[in-house]
Design goal:
Structural class: alpha/beta
CATH superfamily of the largest domain: Periplasmic binding protein-like II
CATH topology of the largest domain: D-Maltodextrin-Binding Protein, domain 2
Strand content: 25-35%
Protein backbone atom coordinates (compact mmCIF):
# COMPACT_ATOMS: atom_id res chain seq x y z
CA UNK A 1 0.00 0.00 0.00
CA UNK A 2 2.83 2.40 0.83
CA UNK A 3 4.36 1.74 -2.58
CA UNK A 4 1.05 2.37 -4.33
CA UNK A 5 0.58 5.57 -2.37
CA UNK A 6 4.09 6.72 -3.34
CA UNK A 7 3.45 5.99 -7.01
CA UNK A 8 0.11 7.85 -6.87
CA UNK A 9 1.70 10.86 -5.16
CA UNK A 10 4.56 10.93 -7.65
CA UNK A 11 2.14 10.72 -10.59
CA UNK A 12 0.06 13.52 -9.10
CA UNK A 13 3.07 15.85 -8.80
CA UNK A 14 4.21 14.99 -12.33
CA UNK A 15 0.71 15.90 -13.56
CA UNK A 16 0.81 19.20 -11.67
CA UNK A 17 4.22 20.07 -13.11
CA UNK A 18 3.04 19.16 -16.59
CA UNK A 19 -0.07 21.31 -16.30
CA UNK A 20 2.00 24.21 -14.99
CA UNK A 21 4.45 23.85 -17.88
CA UNK A 22 1.62 23.63 -20.39
CA UNK A 23 0.32 27.06 -19.45
CA UNK A 24 3.59 28.84 -18.68
CA UNK A 25 4.44 29.73 -22.28
CA UNK A 26 0.95 31.02 -22.95
CA UNK A 27 1.06 33.17 -19.80
CA UNK A 28 4.40 34.66 -20.84
CA UNK A 29 3.09 35.39 -24.33
CA UNK A 30 0.02 37.11 -22.90
CA UNK A 31 2.14 39.19 -20.54
CA UNK A 32 4.54 40.26 -23.28
CA UNK A 33 1.80 40.79 -25.86
CA UNK A 34 4.06 39.25 -28.49
CA UNK A 35 3.88 35.97 -30.39
CA UNK A 36 7.38 35.06 -31.57
CA UNK A 37 7.09 33.37 -34.96
CA UNK A 38 9.90 31.41 -36.60
CA UNK A 39 9.98 31.18 -40.38
CA UNK A 40 12.16 30.55 -43.41
CA UNK A 41 11.69 33.70 -45.55
CA UNK A 42 12.89 32.11 -48.79
CA UNK A 43 9.76 30.27 -49.87
CA UNK A 44 7.28 32.47 -51.78
CA UNK A 45 4.36 32.77 -51.85
CA UNK A 46 4.37 31.64 -48.21
CA UNK A 47 7.20 33.85 -46.97
CA UNK A 48 9.81 36.11 -48.49
CA UNK A 49 11.81 39.15 -47.48
CA UNK A 50 11.25 42.20 -49.70
CA UNK A 51 12.28 45.83 -49.52
CA UNK A 52 9.07 46.44 -47.57
CA UNK A 53 9.65 43.63 -45.06
CA UNK A 54 8.31 40.10 -44.78
CA UNK A 55 5.47 39.18 -47.12
CA UNK A 56 3.46 36.09 -47.98
CA UNK A 57 0.73 33.72 -46.86
CA UNK A 58 2.46 32.70 -43.63
CA UNK A 59 3.17 36.33 -42.74
CA UNK A 60 -0.47 37.33 -43.20
CA UNK A 61 -1.65 34.21 -41.37
CA UNK A 62 0.66 34.80 -38.40
CA UNK A 63 -0.40 38.44 -38.11
CA UNK A 64 -4.09 37.52 -38.31
CA UNK A 65 -3.74 34.78 -35.69
CA UNK A 66 -1.78 37.04 -33.38
CA UNK A 67 -4.33 39.85 -33.74
CA UNK A 68 -7.18 37.42 -33.06
CA UNK A 69 -5.43 36.47 -29.80
CA UNK A 70 -4.80 40.10 -28.83
CA UNK A 71 -1.10 39.84 -29.66
CA UNK A 72 1.48 41.22 -32.07
CA UNK A 73 3.44 38.85 -34.32
CA UNK A 74 7.22 39.20 -34.13
CA UNK A 75 9.10 37.37 -36.90
CA UNK A 76 12.44 35.62 -36.51
CA UNK A 77 14.09 34.31 -39.71
CA UNK A 78 15.94 31.00 -39.81
CA UNK A 79 17.14 28.62 -42.48
CA UNK A 80 14.77 25.75 -43.13
CA UNK A 81 17.14 23.32 -41.37
CA UNK A 82 17.28 25.54 -38.29
CA UNK A 83 13.57 26.02 -37.68
CA UNK A 84 12.92 23.09 -35.33
CA UNK A 85 16.09 23.79 -33.36
CA UNK A 86 14.99 27.39 -32.90
CA UNK A 87 11.66 26.21 -31.53
CA UNK A 88 13.18 23.52 -29.31
CA UNK A 89 15.60 26.01 -27.71
CA UNK A 90 12.87 28.57 -27.02
CA UNK A 91 14.01 31.21 -29.48
CA UNK A 92 10.46 31.31 -30.87
CA UNK A 93 7.00 30.28 -29.67
CA UNK A 94 5.62 28.83 -32.90
CA UNK A 95 6.76 27.92 -36.40
CA UNK A 96 4.56 29.20 -39.24
CA UNK A 97 6.61 28.37 -42.29
CA UNK A 98 4.90 26.03 -44.76
CA UNK A 99 5.96 23.01 -42.70
CA UNK A 100 4.65 19.57 -43.59
CA UNK A 101 3.26 17.49 -40.72
CA UNK A 102 5.95 14.96 -39.73
CA UNK A 103 4.60 12.30 -37.34
CA UNK A 104 8.11 11.17 -36.36
CA UNK A 105 8.64 14.55 -34.65
CA UNK A 106 5.55 14.19 -32.45
CA UNK A 107 7.55 13.34 -29.32
CA UNK A 108 8.97 16.87 -29.10
CA UNK A 109 6.62 18.92 -31.28
CA UNK A 110 2.88 19.26 -31.82
CA UNK A 111 1.09 20.32 -34.98
CA UNK A 112 -2.02 22.41 -35.45
CA UNK A 113 -4.83 21.42 -37.73
CA UNK A 114 -3.61 21.66 -41.35
CA UNK A 115 -4.09 24.96 -43.15
CA UNK A 116 -2.92 24.08 -46.68
CA UNK A 117 -2.56 20.95 -48.80
CA UNK A 118 0.60 21.20 -50.90
CA UNK A 119 0.04 17.79 -52.48
CA UNK A 120 0.04 16.99 -56.18
CA UNK A 121 -2.72 18.31 -58.47
CA UNK A 122 -3.97 17.07 -61.81
CA UNK A 123 -3.91 20.04 -64.19
CA UNK A 124 -5.28 20.06 -67.72
CA UNK A 125 -7.01 22.26 -70.32
CA UNK A 126 -10.40 23.63 -69.34
CA UNK A 127 -12.09 21.78 -72.21
CA UNK A 128 -10.50 18.40 -71.40
CA UNK A 129 -12.90 15.48 -70.76
CA UNK A 130 -10.49 14.11 -68.14
CA UNK A 131 -11.76 14.42 -64.57
CA UNK A 132 -9.41 12.12 -62.64
CA UNK A 133 -6.20 10.10 -62.92
CA UNK A 134 -8.09 6.99 -63.99
CA UNK A 135 -9.18 8.80 -67.19
CA UNK A 136 -5.61 9.20 -68.46
CA UNK A 137 -5.24 5.87 -70.25
CA UNK A 138 -4.14 6.54 -73.83
CA UNK A 139 -2.97 10.05 -72.91
CA UNK A 140 0.31 11.83 -72.14
CA UNK A 141 1.03 13.02 -68.61
CA UNK A 142 3.72 15.65 -67.94
CA UNK A 143 5.61 15.58 -64.64
CA UNK A 144 8.60 17.20 -62.95
CA UNK A 145 11.47 14.75 -63.16
CA UNK A 146 12.06 12.98 -59.85
CA UNK A 147 9.35 14.87 -57.97
CA UNK A 148 6.52 13.29 -56.02
CA UNK A 149 4.22 13.74 -59.00
CA UNK A 150 6.62 11.65 -61.08
CA UNK A 151 6.44 8.89 -58.47
CA UNK A 152 2.65 9.04 -58.42
CA UNK A 153 2.52 8.96 -62.23
CA UNK A 154 4.71 5.85 -62.24
CA UNK A 155 2.26 4.13 -59.90
CA UNK A 156 -0.61 4.99 -62.22
CA UNK A 157 1.34 3.80 -65.26
CA UNK A 158 1.21 0.28 -63.79
CA UNK A 159 -2.58 0.48 -63.75
CA UNK A 160 -3.01 2.24 -67.09
CA UNK A 161 -0.98 0.41 -69.77
CA UNK A 162 -1.39 3.16 -72.38
CA UNK A 163 -0.40 6.06 -70.13
CA UNK A 164 2.69 7.91 -71.40
CA UNK A 165 4.80 9.81 -68.86
CA UNK A 166 6.66 12.87 -70.14
CA UNK A 167 9.24 14.20 -67.60
CA UNK A 168 10.55 17.78 -67.51
CA UNK A 169 13.29 19.43 -65.47
CA UNK A 170 10.95 21.96 -63.83
CA UNK A 171 7.27 22.24 -62.84
CA UNK A 172 6.79 25.11 -65.29
CA UNK A 173 8.24 22.95 -68.07
CA UNK A 174 5.64 20.27 -67.40
CA UNK A 175 2.82 22.80 -67.18
CA UNK A 176 3.92 24.57 -70.35
CA UNK A 177 3.69 21.22 -72.15
CA UNK A 178 0.02 21.07 -71.19
CA UNK A 179 -0.48 24.69 -72.13
CA UNK A 180 0.91 24.23 -75.65
CA UNK A 181 -0.69 20.82 -76.24
CA UNK A 182 2.45 18.69 -75.99
CA UNK A 183 0.89 16.82 -73.06
CA UNK A 184 -2.73 16.12 -72.16
CA UNK A 185 -2.28 16.78 -68.45
CA UNK A 186 0.29 17.32 -65.71
CA UNK A 187 0.65 16.16 -62.12
CA UNK A 188 2.36 19.00 -60.25
CA UNK A 189 2.62 20.22 -56.65
CA UNK A 190 -0.19 22.53 -55.57
CA UNK A 191 2.00 25.61 -55.15
CA UNK A 192 3.64 25.51 -58.59
CA UNK A 193 0.35 24.52 -60.19
CA UNK A 194 -1.77 27.26 -58.65
CA UNK A 195 0.84 29.94 -59.39
CA UNK A 196 0.99 28.83 -63.04
CA UNK A 197 -2.79 28.97 -63.32
CA UNK A 198 -2.73 32.66 -62.34
CA UNK A 199 -1.45 33.54 -65.81
CA UNK A 200 -2.88 30.59 -67.71
CA UNK A 201 -6.67 30.69 -67.35
CA UNK A 202 -7.10 28.15 -70.16
CA UNK A 203 -5.93 25.46 -67.70
CA UNK A 204 -7.76 24.08 -64.68
CA UNK A 205 -7.42 21.74 -61.70
CA UNK A 206 -9.31 18.48 -62.12
CA UNK A 207 -11.13 16.94 -59.17
CA UNK A 208 -9.58 16.32 -55.77
CA UNK A 209 -5.83 16.56 -55.05
CA UNK A 210 -3.93 13.48 -56.16
CA UNK A 211 -1.87 13.38 -52.94
CA UNK A 212 -2.02 14.98 -49.51
CA UNK A 213 0.85 17.04 -48.07
CA UNK A 214 -0.55 19.11 -45.19
CA UNK A 215 1.08 22.28 -43.89
CA UNK A 216 0.54 23.11 -40.21
CA UNK A 217 1.73 25.37 -37.40
CA UNK A 218 4.25 23.82 -34.99
CA UNK A 219 4.73 24.33 -31.24
CA UNK A 220 6.63 22.45 -28.55
CA UNK A 221 4.72 19.43 -27.22
CA UNK A 222 4.49 20.92 -23.74
CA UNK A 223 2.82 24.10 -25.02
CA UNK A 224 -0.64 22.56 -25.27
CA UNK A 225 -2.43 25.72 -24.13
CA UNK A 226 -0.77 27.78 -26.85
CA UNK A 227 -1.69 25.16 -29.44
CA UNK A 228 -5.28 25.08 -28.24
CA UNK A 229 -5.57 28.85 -28.64
CA UNK A 230 -3.93 28.83 -32.07
CA UNK A 231 -6.24 26.05 -33.26
CA UNK A 232 -9.30 27.88 -31.95
CA UNK A 233 -8.34 31.06 -33.80
CA UNK A 234 -7.48 29.14 -36.95
CA UNK A 235 -10.83 27.38 -36.91
CA UNK A 236 -12.67 30.67 -36.37
CA UNK A 237 -10.81 32.29 -39.29
CA UNK A 238 -11.65 29.34 -41.52
CA UNK A 239 -15.30 29.75 -40.62
CA UNK A 240 -15.68 33.48 -41.17
CA UNK A 241 -13.84 33.83 -44.49
CA UNK A 242 -10.68 35.56 -43.25
CA UNK A 243 -8.60 32.46 -43.84
CA UNK A 244 -9.74 32.03 -47.45
CA UNK A 245 -8.88 35.65 -48.17
CA UNK A 246 -5.34 35.15 -46.83
CA UNK A 247 -4.66 31.88 -48.62
CA UNK A 248 -6.32 32.31 -51.99
CA UNK A 249 -5.44 35.96 -52.57
CA UNK A 250 -1.92 34.75 -53.37
CA UNK A 251 -3.23 32.33 -56.02
CA UNK A 252 -6.09 34.37 -57.46
CA UNK A 253 -6.07 34.91 -61.21
Amino acid sequence: MKRLFYIFRLSFFVLLISCSSNGRTWQRIQQSGTLRVGLDPTYPPFAQLTADGYEGIDIDLAQALAADLGLTAEFAPFSYDGLYDALATGQVDVLISALVVEPDKSRDFAYSQPYFNAGELLILPVDSPVTKMADLNGRTLAVELGARGHVEATVWARRLPDLTILPFDTPDGALTAVSDGTADAAVIDAISGRLFLKTNPHLKIAGEPVTVEPYALVVRTEDAVLLENLNASLEEMMGDGRFDQIIWSQFAK
